[in-house]
Specification:
The structure is a homotetramer of 341-residue chains. Chain A has helices spanning 19-23, 48-53, 72-92, 116-122, 128-132, 152-155, 159-170, 215-218, 233-253, 258-262, 279-290, 294-305, 319-338; strands at 31-36, 39-46, 59-65, 101-105, 144-147, 174-183, 192-196, 222-231, 312-316. Chain A has 341 residues and is of the alpha/beta class. In chain A, strands 1-2-3-7-8-6-4-5 form an eight-stranded mixed sheet. The longest helix of chain A has 21 residues, at 72-92. Chain A is elongated. Chains in contact: A-B, A-D, B-C, C-D. At the A-B interface, helix 9, helix 11, helix 12, strand 9 and helix 13 of A face helix 9, helix 11, helix 12, strand 9 and helix 13 of B. Strand 9 of chain C pairs antiparallel with strand 9 (312-316) of chain D, so a sheet runs across the interface.
Chain lengths: 341, 341, 341, 341
């Protein structure tokens, strides 16, 4: 008999940057919900206690849920919604009209799913150079500058060190930092925008070994805007195992249902299927694995893949198109949010 | 008890373009092997019978195995090896010195792992324009032109139709077609070059629904050069399940071995671990799944993922760097192979 | 005494693709003018006689004059104006709702001022792949496909041959071709859009030695959309000589005007200065050159530069920003114009 | 009669970054010359006095003259020559083996002629991240990091401020800074590499209003590597006027030479033609302009163009191809020069 306890389940940090995925199993918290047509904005005010319990930072988290940003009509609704969300956050944390802003695009311009930050910054309206050149600024605008620090893999420099160095020179009053995130669930990829005043944290997103970029470490407010564009390998495997069970549960339920027999498997929707299998059935299909918790399965898979040195990105095939849409969306929303009136 | 036979295992085509992965379980064939330092070139002359048996086309397949193309020394050895391999193939299929060549880069320039073809073509030395402009060509050179047709997702046109249309106008004597491929095994990603005179086939690589690009369909010899840069989601899941077993087998074997206890899991190499678990142990760990064939597991996973509409790419994180190295490698090798002397 | 007639003034074709620059000195023609705020649309219906007299093709030419497309408000007005202009042309040449369209982006994606066509096509909404994949098309849309053939310098193939080849395969009912043009006057660079049903002609724009792309050569209607993004070296030199005269004329006029003395030269606006110098003054400043016609000066400069083999592009410094704005403008305008309702 | 003295000739800085163009009319200086096949390396040790007299900084200037870097054989000779030149400079200024290096690519990645710096840095082998990740470095390598600060037009931040900020964080022992330069002569564009230990200076190259990047301002040695990729508008005009005279001089000389009559103008090589016209002839052809000094003509043209607000780049048409070759050349040369052995 194989001793599962050989597997130390604590060793592997599970990779997700989405508060909603961290907090999901956690009941005692308040959330505020707004609906824009087919778009939902969820605002969570994470207090100290809850924050600690899910190993996140205390602060405001806004999550925008949408299904498709590539259709023009959805795009415009989403633009409206995200502009409002950014403005809300800017107000909540008391950013004054005369505060200057540095917009930072994290990530690797050359790796499609990681290019969200740099591509967004490419379309940010900067104004600081006008002042630098000695002209005065239309009072409709803030002083805005931008930075694309690159990733340590290509610069050899901690992203945070570059940002810190630049901040000490140009002294912006606050930062907006855009980054591609990792999700722990396939279903949220490219369908979620997260805004928070808590900054960006080590090992988050695609940029590992990066030190925290936040008010605590930089001394100025940091608004982090992220979209999950990848999941890691462990996620896709554990998601699949999870679907396997729903699949079997569905098959079992309908085993003598002639109508279902006629539905081609590719059209059988068990995604939302709720009837779950019992412990015995799970064991029958997947043995020991069958009765592990999601987290345990992920840790196990991490333990299995790590020695193989596979450092993998999982992204949708049409990623290039989606990223260009999403980066132009964020740029437009940020530009509008930074205008004064 | 759940009826596994509910799952029709034939429904899903398994995605691999690597002959070695198709032929691996198949014994009766000849291969010729050359070694260049740490690089291996395998040449298979697929006869009709074998070809049919593995559902591939009759013809010559050369597979170059390497570990790392990013180190300068390896790069140069690999360049030498692949140049020789391309020249061999050119000779084997009797390409004459006065044959003109059209080099085609398949794939989507904007999706990093799929950009191999376009990036390679960017560095191909073309000569045809000299002739077009009315000058005569140094007899050291062939007439060479190039084409980047794009992908149907962005052009709305079958890649093959574009190539066919251009061929009818400029009448090249043969084609070299470069494409990113899909592997059915994580271990070969970005570590294999495949050359063949059989062209490129429907549903291969990243470009589905593409009609065959080959001598049979275009009327001129087609040399296809491919490198696997992605695996699909089903592959990574089934690979992981496979590693799970090796992992447990390794853990079990060493359960009372104090020395192993001291090795951090991340350094325990069970990748090549050969002692396998028996039917019972597999069942214990993974139930019914545990005793399916690899192909059955893949088909099952495909059946599970398909209805969810997940169309995923799995690539290494440093893909942008690797692709730029590999495309410059292929360009240099093709340029040298097309020179006359 | 030096014999000017040594210089044969007929030898050099003057490079401009803007009808307004060809026709400017020519009086007997009708034009229709529309005004959108600060934007002007000029429509010329070129009859056979006039066409011959200025060595252009008979047909409809629409010229949109604007000053700055980078400001958001101007951008939207310009988008409205150019959408209307494209729709007008589509109607005038009787494109039916069920006509399929191939949108072609000419030029070199990698040379900023020449990338207008490819960048525009990147954002064209294509629909043809839906039909290709066997689905039916929302009747709000035409069948639209796109092509970026590249330039002969990098493909070794005549752009026209590629287009022709593809057309014969996919049989579109009409073409929209986008290209960067050459202007013969600095003042129109990036400030003019030209639409015409006469197609694109040899030696136009940046792509020399390219054969005509038009209804006559391809058999289907061709709508050409161009923006001048460069002038050639001869243009900038002759423009400057021309400004020299205005400058001196201005200086002379104001030589004893103390107020003008106080205006820093960089702010003295003689651009629109109309008082011109007489023959003698011109001779005094510029000798023989001073009394040549613009065309003669250009021909002379061409004669001087040609043997030096200088093949130059002259573009504004902020060209990359302008091109990305203008290509997104054209893409949006074309997408709207191709929608049915 | 028009008063030329109305034109203040001191107002306009002439734009050139090439020491050889500044020093050309200046006789009393030593230079050391090496020849590699068709490549020439000129080393000038500018002393205080000479430096002041031409308004440049005291220091070492190495100029590499070549004709074509796109041909493979030339490329390799040039690579050898420039590697040697960089190594020489590194030794001359006493860079120790254990000095860490920050390689900075100045310029705008998105404007082809200005992308030389960023593209070069893309291929620099960085090693610092290995140390950052806690591993130790093969003693064959220095600690190397890289930075692409962008241009003020897109970041709103002085390039120098970004560099300064990063330097204060990571404390490199010396810098290598790559930039596209402006030439004051068409003939040197893309055919010259300049190395100097004096850094990069205000108003140089394409990046105006940039503060000095040098040992004096940053506190660590700065090796500047530049290639002229553009000339400004005034240059091309004054060059042309200059060619006009050579042209007429040539025409005059050969006016009765029947043989010359047979040579098509495009093949008459007067480029190196030395017989010059006398004062009277110049006046006859070009009046007052005809007898101005080159500098006076340039200043005059600058005065004429400035109020028109034309901020122009003049580059060869094939610039994208040349830039990609030259950036890969510099990257290879820098990588080799930074290796230890």
């Amino acid at each position: 008999m194989i001793k599962m306890h050989e597997v130390d389940l604590s060793k592997y940090k599970l990779r997700t940057d989405l508060i909603t995925e961290n907090i999901s199993n956690y009941k005692q918290y308040q959330k505020e919900v707004e609906i824009y047509k087919n778009i939902k904005i969820e605002t969570i005010n994470l207090d100290d206690k809850t924050a600690k319990s899910i190993n996140k930072k205390k602060g405001i988290y806004k999550t925008i849920y949408f299904e498709d940003a590539t259709d023009e009509e959805n795009f415009n609704t989403l633009l409206e919604a995200s502009t409002k969300a950014i403005k809300d956050l800017i107000n909540k944390i008391k950013i004054k009209d005369d505060y200057s802003c540095l917009v930072v695009g994290l990530g690797n311009r050359k790796a499609t799913p990681d290019a969200l930050g740099p591509l967004t910054v490419d379309s940010i309206k900067i104004t600081r150079e006008i002042v630098e050149l000695g002209f005065s600024l239309d009072n409709k605008y803030r002083i805005i500058s931008s930075l694309v620090p690159g990733v340590m893999g290509t610069t050899g420099i901690e992203t945070k060190e570059i940002i810190e160095g630049v901040i000490e020179k140009i002294k912006p009053d606050f930062l907006i930092v855009i980054d591609a995130l990792a999700a722990s669930n396939l279903e949220r990829i490219n369908k979620t925008i997260q805004l928070t005043d808590t900054g960006i944290h080590p090992g988050s997103g695609l940029l590992n070994n990066r030190h925290e970029i936040s008010k605590e470490t930089l001394g100025v407010p940091v608004i982090a805007i992220g979209i999950p564009t990848v999941v890691d390998a462990t996620t896709i495997v554990s998601n699949t195992i999870n679907y396997l069970f729903r699949h079997f549960s569905y098959e079992k339920e309908n085993i003598d249902n002639q109508k279902v027999k006629l539905i081609p498997p590719s059209s059988r929707n068990y995604k939302e299927y709720d009837k779950t299998l019992n412990k015995e059935e799970r064991k029958e299909i997947m043995g020991l694995i069958g009765n592990l918790e999601d987290n345990q399965i992920k840790s196990l898979i991490a333990e299995v893949l790590t020695p193989l040195g596979y450092n993998l990105l999982v992204t949708p095939k049409e990623i290039d198109f989606v990223i260009s849409k999403l980066s132009s969306l964020l740029a437009k929303a940020i530009n509008k949010s930074l205008e004064l009136n």
